[in-house]
Amino acid sequence: MDTKQLRPYLVIPKLIEQPTWGGTYIAESKKWQDTPYLAGKKIGQSYELYDKSNLSFALSSEEAQFSGEIADNKSVEQQSVIPNSMALADLIAADPDAVLGKRIVSTYGAKMHLLLKFTQALGNSFQLHIPDGVKNDRWKPKPESWYYFEPGLITCGVRKDVDWGAYEGAVTKLDTEMQSVAARVRDGSLSYEDAKTLIAKLVKEANPWQYVNVLRVEKGTLLDLSPCGIHHSWEEDLAAIPLGNVLYEIQLNVMDDVATLRSFDKGKISKDGKLRPLQIAEYFAYADRSPAANDPKTHMREAKNVAQTSAYTHDRILETKYYSMDRVTFGKSGSLFESALETFRHVFVKSGAMTVAAGGVSVTVTTGHSVFIPAGCAAYTITSSLPDTEVLISY
To answer: Does 3 have pLDDT greater than 90?
Structure first.
């Protein structure tokens, strides 16, 4: 590999438009709310790093040539070609060890194994991922963890006093009833509006929320679901959490269609009478029913201080066998943080701004943007450009 390629790169975020449940938080964080191509659009997720990411040659996130790309749930799985950039996959292919680090390559192969997302979302389905170590011809484990930027509302785990049979029976009956309603919409014997009214009544009667832990999470909460087999969902309450669930996700790069088992889809139906398939039997077969796994406190992580200096506070907020995340906070501008590298680093600016230097190249990164640093750089430095700068380092 040309050593000139071993330098920090701004990551071009892939912005997913979600008209029904997205918002403006992500665009505003990135200072792109007035960008013409985002005008009037609700963004639900920004892919900050994954195997289809593109890396920009720009040296500052404030350069006019640096912008995101709009995608949907299908196109996000395709490698795009962007001017003045290169695909992360091409950089890796040139020298996997130098880009990812030998340990990553030996464990996951010559590809980016992480998926990092900046999310603003309303409610989603009741779901879980099969436990690590379970062999299944279709389903794969998907370890994931959430760091909340704002207060949120979630379900996590099944209630300790639950009757699992009653829970399974309730969602199975509800699905059967919804299939009947959906069929009537498809054959034209029931209008879409009447179907929604009927479904709302059925959902209220079944009340699947009675079987799971519903809780509010505060800003700064780190929820680690990497063991898998754990029931989880995002909830919505526009009065209590008007922004929806605003969080930073770190997970293995496994797509939902081979990882997510759903037992309840919140009564959603499309105008043409289609329902998203559920995997109720498998959800209950693979759910970890142990008391500890279903206690939300089991999955809350407390920050562990790594270093405290006059320039910064370095905390490890997450450490799993799949991935880790550090938080570095700077109290004033001009403060310096430096670290050696054995594997790649992804650095996201949660607030403030920074300059990252490695391989003889410096890149300026502002709030809401991120940089990828290849392992072969051997070391990197972060200099805060503003007071109260906070960065998240994933690896």
So the answer is: no
Residue with tokens 């943080």: 337
Q: Which amino acid is at 355?
A: T
pLDDT surpassing 80 at residue 1: no
Q: Region 337-365: what's the mean pLDDT? A: 98
Report how far residue 381's alpha carbon sits from residue 366's, in angstroms, rounded to the nearest whole number. 16
Q: Which two three-digit tokens encode residue 128?
A: 């879980």
Which CATH architecture describes the domain 3-153+214-256?
A: Sandwich (2.60)
Residue found by looking up tokens 């996959």 in the block: 89
Provide the 3-class DSSP secondary structure of residue 301.
coil
How far apart, in whole angstroms, are the C-alpha atoms of residue 372 and residue 7? 9
CATH code linked to domain 304-394: 2.60.120.10
Token representation of residue 314: 């370095």
DSSP structure string for 173-197: HHHHHHHHHHHHHHTTSS-HHHHHH
Q: What is the pLDDT of residues 266-325, one digit of tens each?
A: 999 999 999 999 999 999 999 999 999 999 999 999 999 999 999 999 999 999 999 999
Map out the domains of the chain as residue ranges: 3-153+214-256, 304-394
**Which residue is it, tokens 């490695």?**
358
Q: What angle do CA 367, 328, 368 make, to 5 degrees?
A: 15
Under 8 Å between Cβ of 185 and 272: yes
